[in-house]
Amino acid sequence: MRRKAKGLICLRMVDLWCQKWNLLLLFCLIGLLQWDLCSGQRLVQIQEGPLYRVKGYPIFISCNVSGFKGSPLQDFQFILKKGNIDINMISTFDTDFPYRMYSDRVTNKDIEIQRLSGSSVLLRINDLMEEDAGDLFCETLNTDGSYFGSYAAETKLNVIADTLEASYSGSPSQSLSEGDPLQLECQVFSQTFQHTHLSVTWFLHGEEDENPRPVITLDKDLTVKPGAGFEDRYGSGLISMDKVEDTTYRLKMSQVQQSDQGKFFCKAIEWIQDPDRSWTQIAYKTTPACDVEIKLLVAPDVGSFSVNLKVSKGPLKEGDTLDIRCSVNAQNLPGHFFSVTWLKNQQKVAQIGSSGVLTVSDSYKERENAAEMKAVKTSQMDYLLTIRSARTEDQGQYQCEVWQENMNEDGIFTKIQKKMSSPETVSITAKESDLAVLMVMNDMVTEGDALRVTCSVTGFKGPLSVSWQHKKDSGVSFSDVISLTHEGVMKDVGARYQRRNIQTLHSPAGNFTLEIGAAATSDSGEYKCIVSEWTVQSNGEIKKANTQSQEKAIPVNSVESLMRMSLKSRTTNVPIDSPVELLCTVRGPKASLAVRWMFQPHNSTVQTNILSIRHTGEMTWTADQRNYQLSIQAQPTETRFILMIPRVSKKQEGQYQCQVDAYQNDVQKAEKISNSLAVTVQKPVSKMRLNPPTPHLETTVNTDAKLECSVTKTTTNTSRFTITWSFGSQMLLTMDLDAVVKFGPAAGLEMDQRIRMDIREKQSFQLNIQQTRTSDSGKYDCEVEEWLQDPVGDWYSLKKMSVSTELVVKQEASDFKMNKASTQLTVEEGKQLKLKCSVDGIVSDSTFRYSLNWVFDRYQSSSVPLLTYSHDGRLNYNSYDSELERRLHFFTPELGIFYLNIHRAIEEDTGRYYCQVQQYQLDCKGKWSLKASDKSGFTSVTVQLTESKLLVHKEEKSLKAILHAGFTIDCVIESRSSDASLFEVTWSKAQRGEPPVIIFNASRDGTLQSTINDKDLVFGHPKAMHYKLTVPNVNPTDTGLYHCQVVEWIQTAANKWRRLGEDKSGVLSVQVETEEGQKNGSFAMVKNAKDLVIKEGEQFDLECSLDVENENPTYQYSLRWVFNRPESTSGIPLLSYSHDGRLQYNTEYQDRLRFSRPSSGTFRLERLNSNIADSGSYQCRVVQYQLDCEGQWKQMAEDKSGSTIVTVRNIESKLHVQKENRILNITKHQAEFTIDCVIDSQTSDKSFFEVTWFKVQEKEEPVTMFTAKHDGTLHTAISEKNLLFRRPLATHYKLTVPQISPSDMGKYYCQVEEWLLTDNTWMKLGSDKSGELSIYVQTEESKLHVQKENRMLNITKHQAEFTIDCVIDSQTSDKPFFEVTWFKVQEKEEPVTMFTAKHDGTLHTAISEKNLLFGRPLATHYKLTVPQISPSDMGKYYCQVEEWLLTDNTWMKLGSDRSGELSIYVQTEGLSEKTTDPLVPALWVTVPLICFLVLVIVLLLKRDQKRNSELKKKKDCLWAENNPLSPMPEVEEDCS
């Protein structure tokens, strides 16, 4: 099976991993075991297209593969793609691979593959055919063990017609003598529409030549190049080549030589420039040859002779006889012969050779044949040329040219010397004649049409003949086209017209018509009609009596120059959803037309194709055909191509163009592009109106506030809205077109739990704020934006409007308030920080409690909550820092007083602290209600860092050390900054005038590191602040200046180490005394300084050379290479090489160092894979040792080299990724979308890329989706989706997201990193980011509706079953699938699933004990029958319907709905009379209750009646007691 091109095999592997996730781990392990970091990815490359090649000629197309594993002999196969059909052409390994149309050609070797190497081939087609045109794929088979890279490449092959013509117009043979001039002409032209160049070469094929020799070439770039052996004559101007007019190529040789004898012919080659800028030969033609004979000149003894010329005297008239006599006067020339040539205007007329043979030039042969001209030798020394019936064109300047010749024994003549006569001028007066010629041309000539020109003749009496001539430009001479004799025979067809349809016709009226079929633009120019009148003489001979001619300029117009086209429309400014009709009108000559419609969207620079129609009629749609309609109207004078957009959308706004190409006989003749036509799509005018809300709204804390925002009028019934509520200047929440609500920054961490937006009556959007607080006071803005959907499904905005409401939240009266005093606190680093927050006026009521939020406001940063303490005693730490959380200690010793301690304060604790306290009260129902809220004052805290008090003893000392003894370098710390600090001590050694080099380091964590490998340095730490380093077994190389460097560190509460300070000790100067000194030292270092500038990633070489006076085998050398970074005071030892052969590297650099010693006095260090940190100076230090007679090594001398300054420069990244921003609207019918990542340029040809795709949703951080690592591994971060990865080209990556859902909305982009592998080390060269692809998933509102009628059914013992109907009233799609589930509900219980009819057609029952019966009488009517009824079947039943759609083998859920309820009551046997009506049981309770209430009401009425009668009796007394307005004396009165 053919593997898909452009890396589709890699796509299948990714798809397999995504589908078989349980095998992913196994594949990863196998991939890691087999992966070779040194190998690259497979890359197949084919010759870049499009390629234009000529039918009938051989072609070669190269293909190669790189980056592969396995066999070095790779197999290839070529496949031709035409449309959607793949045609196997040829394979290197499978003889049965070609399809039938190619199998015979492959068998006959007409198509074959030629190997250049194991990984490179040439496809050779010996005879190219038209059916070979198409997309050509070159594929390789996988030999890598795993799929990585591209396995196919593609190019475009176009086959064009052969229009190259080459012809020779001269004599087939010529005889010349040495020194004579030679002039030959050939005509070459091509009508290929593609831009091609021609090269023309004159060849000479001599008798002794195995192959023709090039004489001279006019190359494709119009440069003239002489052939081998002709360079000197070309440089001297004796050989030249001229291009005459457009098609004639003239060879001139001023003096021919004997070696020039042979056959001359002309070869023309047509060239085309391919996309890779190389020139390729696509066609060639060769002309017939001219056989040229060159006679040898022999120079014997020469005498002298002279030449005289005499012409007819007196005035000559046309028709008179013209005599031209040539006389030779010779002296002392016995036995010699003469050849005489008559010349007119330096052009040959006739010649009598030494043998007496007459030759006449081509232009006079016709007259010689007509006996109008003859030449004779009248005497031994006299020669006569006679022209009868002279013509006006015979006038001019005449001369005689005479050659003296000798004849040898073989009868061959050789030229000796030449003499020329004096010139004589002949004038001929035209004879009056009635013969008149007029050239007439009625019609304009168009390329491809027949050229017809008429020569009208009047005033003639005898027969007529005509000759037609043509010249391209005024500066050149006429050339023959065709002739018609007086006998009516056509002859003398010009060389340019040999293969063309040409004729001349003669009418009885005397008109001559020249007709050239299929005229070309090269046929333009001056045409000459030469008409001759003939008369019959008395002797019966016919004689030319008179000749007249006329010239006329005839242009041949090209198809392209006559084509006119325009693009227009009646309506270019239209509203959305209106029709647009674009009219592309083409006027011009008759030709086959190809048309292409193009579109450039508004605010875009990219032009795309809508559709193309070839001149043969095939139509190809590139855009969505559903959005366009095309019609073609062919009229006599014009052709109209009408593109109609039935319902225009905003997406179709932009510039439109049409391109028309004209063809004649399948050869392209013209290409025209119309004017740009801008189509503007107008949005409808918005009619939206908002209901003005209450401008001012007041409420109290802990209540709910409702803010209204209503649309009273819309533009259409299908309008949708986006709503944005803002609080102050920040967004509070927003709702998109799909009613998805998102909170904004104004909602905060707490407010989003108290706010929501309700949609009422579709166009009313209410903002609810629950449990309002005083902080909720402010201005609330509601911004409404109206949206409509255009015909292609895109939503567009119409208008924005907003309304505002001022909300005032008042605090209930309360005595609660916080202590707002601001305080300043300063605390030392590491000490405890104590914060207090208290309530003023604590209420003694035990029903009050307090909640608290403690907030930290770091300087120049946002506020962060530290903890939350609830009124019910819950304590939560909300710290953003887990380390800080461990240092917090909160307590509240009494009501309303709160403390927060922060242990071990650090610098990051500096800032402002405050607390927000809420007062709660417990009501009688046991519920807490918020009563008041207030904020405390600020506590500004400053954490003072520990100051450095480090001081190291600085006494300067000198020490003379004895050879092989030891010395100690003390490092005494006199004071420290903190008792908790630790020290890092470093000892360094320096020579005078040189930077110090580290010799030992004691780190703060106790690790020890020595950089001197040939000594065992002894470290000591006798006291906490006393460090010592002992150097044992000293030798002269230990002489130097020593000191120690101390760095003090302290660990903060955040478990981070902070550097407190550093100090340096005094210098200990050590001089090692030797027993013999350096008396035997006999070497020196080469101290040349060098500067090296290299690029990052390259290696550089360092070299140390010794200048040794005498080679002595008892001498050996130790070496140490030291590296100093810029602005560094201490050197870093890179390696040490001991005199006894031990070699040790610095462990940090050992992987990138390579040491060698090519000779005894040369040391070399290679530093591999350099980076910027390698910049600095390099120096080596060498010590000389000698082996004494006792076998001991003694140091003799030491020296150091010059410094090599190395500068490593960054590699400038040239990585660039395409940054086009695109928007894609996804509908429910689309199952996937692809994110392309195209790399335009790269830094290196050997780069590897790492591509990561990200998804960004509004106001969220980018989320990684998928990564294709630079080492070839693939990583997906979204396991729930089968993301599909492809790499069709080396710089083109694609990620396809399948199974689209609304959650896929967002912006997508890719990040590309460029890596380079050098010396097994990966180096990152740069990174770049692509443009964004915005994805909008359009969800269709579900139209599913199920009948919701509620029904009640009483079941008796006579009924054996009941049916639950499920009827669907409406649906969303025309091709839906339904999933129906029936449920049963009993009182105070959850619904129980009974039966499901799945959308895939399967049935599932959940009640196995009943044989539930499923039925579907209609497509939208489902039934479930419950048999074997029992009392347990009582309850409520309903069905749930889900609507599904199958698109691209993917199920998509469109919506769901549920039916009304069916209530089932089952009457048990024996109680049928009591339970006939379900209301009967209720009446048994209701009737007694009503009777009881009536009885109670009667008793109450009677009691009330009794009370009224008693009050009436006491009426007067009650009035007196209750009327104090008139005081009376106290009188006892019986009121009983």
Can you offer a commentary on this structure?
This protein has 1536 residues and is mostly beta strands. It is built from nine helices and 120 strands. A hairpin with a 4-residue loop joins strand 39 (502-506) and strand 40. The radius of gyration is 55 Å and the shape is flat. Mean pLDDT is 84; it is low at 1-39, 1077-1081, 1470-1483 and 1511-1536.
Question: Which secondary structure elements does this structure contain, and how are they paired or packed?
Answer:
Elements: H1 8-19, H2 24-34, E1 43-46, E2 51-54, E3 59-66, E4 76-82, E5 85-91, H3 100-107, E6 111-117, E7 120-125, E8 134-140, E9 152-160, E10 165-168, E11 173-177, E12 182-189, E13 196-205, E14 213-218, E15 224-226, H4 231-235, E16 239-244, E17 248-253, E18 262-273, E19 279-286, E20 290-295, E21 304-311, E22 316-317, E23 322-331, E24 337-344, E25 347-352, E26 358-360, H5 362-369, E27 373-377, E28 382-387, E29 396-407, E30 413-420, E31 424-426, E32 428-429, E33 436-440, E34 445-446, E35 451-458, E36 464-471, E37 479-484, E38 490-491, E39 502-506, E40 511-516, E41 525-536, E42 542-554, E43 556-557, H6 559-562, E44 564-568, E45 573-575, E46 580-587, E47 592-601, E48 608-613, E49 619-621, E50 629-634, E51 639-645, E52 654-664, E53 667-673, E54 677-682, E55 689-691, E56 696-700, E57 705-707, E58 710-713, E59 720-727, E60 730-735, E61 741-743, E62 755-760, E63 764-769, E64 778-789, E65 795-810, E66 817-818, E67 823-828, E68 833-840, E69 848-857, E70 863-869, E71 875-877, H7 882-886, E72 888-894, E73 897-902, ...
Parallel strand pairs: 2-9, 11-20, 22-32, 34-43, 45-54, 56-65, 67-76, 78-87, 89-98, 100-109, 111-120
Antiparallel strand pairs: 1-3, 3-7, 4-5, 4-8, 6-7, 8-9, 10-12, 12-17, 13-14, 13-18, 14-15, 16-17, 18-19, 18-20, 21-23, 23-28, 24-25, 24-29, 25-26, 27-28, 29-30, 29-31, 33-35, 35-40, 36-37, 36-41, 37-38, 39-40, 41-42, 44-46, 46-51, 47-48, 47-52, 48-49, 50-51, 52-53, 52-54, 55-58, 57-63, 59-60, ...
